[in-house]
Design brief:
Length: 264
């Protein structure tokens, strides 16, 4: 089932949470002069325009990155600001980077980037935007992940960011995290999940924490982007987070906790 399109949700509060911590981790990991692998199982199209009809229709970017920009959550030297600045300079002031372009802002010549995206149109757009700077596969993300781990270079990060279109996606995501960790003990694995009013994520998180007690769970809540919107928060489960991750996550928690309801 491939009906999900991230263009409707790009720049949402969930993206702010996910992309800010992804940028922070890659900023940290690339300080060391050693090559790394960046693998992504559900990459999306890589580049979004926040004035496009889909983004305007949901209002999620207005309640997300547009709001946060005005609140000064990220100093100019924060890695997320650096990624946003790079993409806006290259693609215009309304541009917003998906996770592949967030990652690309940090990766160096000797680093390896492999992205899986199954949706034909999203895949075509991603190939175009990456312009040969990544290996872009039209392949099931889980199959790609299990085929390539442990990757070479062995040091690196995998983002698993499914669209959770069906209930079984939660169980599949937890299974994939366990399998990838089983084959790649040193890899940083970052799983994103939505926090919905239905609480569908809960059993997945219980399962992950039981199987991987050293993993770090970080969840934030935010006011719904519009009345009746079922997504009320964003979660990350991270294995082998770099030093300092918990402090940055705690800083974000305080900012999210201080958010007043969104008035549009
Ligand atoms: C949540 S979006 C990705 C957003 C992106 N990671 C970002 O943060 O910018 C999920 C993407 O996964 C793609 N997708 C769905 N099922 C997939 C599968 N089995 N393998 C690879 N991609 C898939 C969808 O087409 C969609 O573009």
């Amino acid at each position: 089932m491939l009906s999900y399109q991230h263009g409707y949700h790009a720049g949402s509060m969930a993206d702010v949470h996910k992309h800010a911590l992804l940028a922070w981790m890659l900023g940290y990991l690339t300080q060391k002069d050693k090559p790394l692998s960046y693998l992504e199982t559900h990459a999306g199209r890589g580049l979004y325009q926040l004035d496009a009809p889909e983004a305007v229709k949901t209002g999620e970017a207005a309640a997300g990155i547009a709001r946060v920009g005005g609140l000064g959550w990220f100093a100019a030297e924060h890695p997320y600001s650096a990624a946003l600045g790079k993409v806006r300079a290259e693609h215009g002031v309304s541009a917003y980077p998906g996770s592949p372009l967030v990652a690309e802002a940090f990766l160096r010549a000797g680093d390896r980037m492999v992205l899986a995206e199954l949706h034909p149109q999203e895949h075509t757009a991603l190939v175009e935007v990456m312009g040969g700077r990544a290996q872009v596969l039209k392949e099931d993300g889980a199959k790609m992940a299990l085929r390539l781990v442990p990757p070479e270079p062995k040091r690196g990060l995998m983002l698993i960011d499914p669209s959770y279109e069906i209930k079984g996606d939660y169980e599949a995501a937890a299974r994939l995290v366990r399998q990838v960790h089983g084959r790649w003990a040193v890899g940083v694995i970052m799983l994103w999940y939505p926090i919905l009013t239905s609480g569908l994520h809960r059993s997945m998180v219980v399962d992950l924490e039981r199987a991987l007690p050293d993993g770090v769970r970080h969840e934030v809540r935010f006011p719904p982007a519009r009345e009746g919107h079922r997504m009320v928060g964003s979660g990350l489960f991270v294995i082998n987070p770099p030093y300092g991750f918990s402090a940055e996550a705690a800083r974000l928690s305080r900012l999210f906790e201080g958010l007043a309801p969104f008035s549009g």
